[in-house]
From TrEMBL:
Keywords: Hydrolase, Metal-binding, Metalloprotease, Protease, Proteasome, Zinc
Tagged with keyword Zinc: yes
GO CC, alphabetical: proteasome complex
Protein name as it appears in the record: Proteasome lid subunit RPN8/RPN11
InterPro entries, per database record: JAB_dom_prok, MPN
Pfam assignment, any one: Prok-JAB
Domain of life: Archaea
Amino acid sequence: MAFRSRPVVGIAGETLDFALEAAEDSHPNEYLGVLRGTPAAEYDIDGTGDLITDVLFIPKTTSSPVQATLQSDLVPNDSHTVGTVHSHPNGVLRPSDQDRQMFTKGNVHVILGAPYERDCWRAFDREGEPATLDVYDVSLPDPEDFFDFTQADIDAELEEEGRR
């Protein structure tokens, strides 16, 4: 699993809301996802770090009221991965010893707690120490637009790259 080494400057509000909703939907079981970042400059945010813009659910993730686990070999092996997000259905916003073991990979880890409202989360660094993670009100691309392309668009891109 590759993780970016650049700092994480914040999280998009839409991304935080998505994670909180996913955690609430998983309740009373824990929720676990992988955080991915985009260079903050792409959103006109000062700084050289990344803005968390995506949460990935990894196939074969298992969950119960006391823990969630994922198969690390299924996490995308690229530099966009910046950390993890998971929930504590009991509402405790402190990392457990097991959480701290998971935190060794990635720069930021977010714990969400019941009742999963906008103030029911905390960020931690790879050592499990509290971290500051600002929430940014930015417009993220519409997920519907992700697949908004035609075969002609693919052919043009391949031709531009010299692969056709």
